[in-house]
Amino acid sequence: MEHETRSARQLWVEDEKGRRRMPDPVRTAAVRAVLLTSVTLIQAMVAFFCAVTGSWLAFPMLLSSVGSTVVATWSVLDVWVTRQVWRQRNGVVSEPSSTARQLRRERRRARKAARAVESEPGHGAAAIRRTSEARGGTESRALSEVA
Fold this sequence. Notes:
By secondary structure, the chain is mainly α. It has helices spanning 2-8, 24-53, 58-90, 99-119, 125-135, 138-146. The N and C termini lie far apart (84 Å).
């Protein structure tokens, strides 16, 4: 009986959490930073134990530990930079009231209005040429040289 109830339950149950999941590029950088930091700590421990025992491997391990420390520091900074870049590109808050979404919406409306104006008859490059010729013609010469 107990075996049947155990199999009826789900193996994995999602807990609702207040924090959202990290974006993929940020999570990838964070995993890379954790792996490099752990390797650096292991190298430092091996270098220490080699130095205590008087092994010839102590000095090469010390040099590689110093190099790994630089790389691990760089990878932690990479997490921070990747997070900031992701926030700038995708907006800070993922809500309809977000500033980034509002700016995107305004740009989209402006592009749509510009396309609508260009598709109307009497607008576009021919209209620019006609209006500039009426003003004095200097811009029409520049446009004809470009074309």
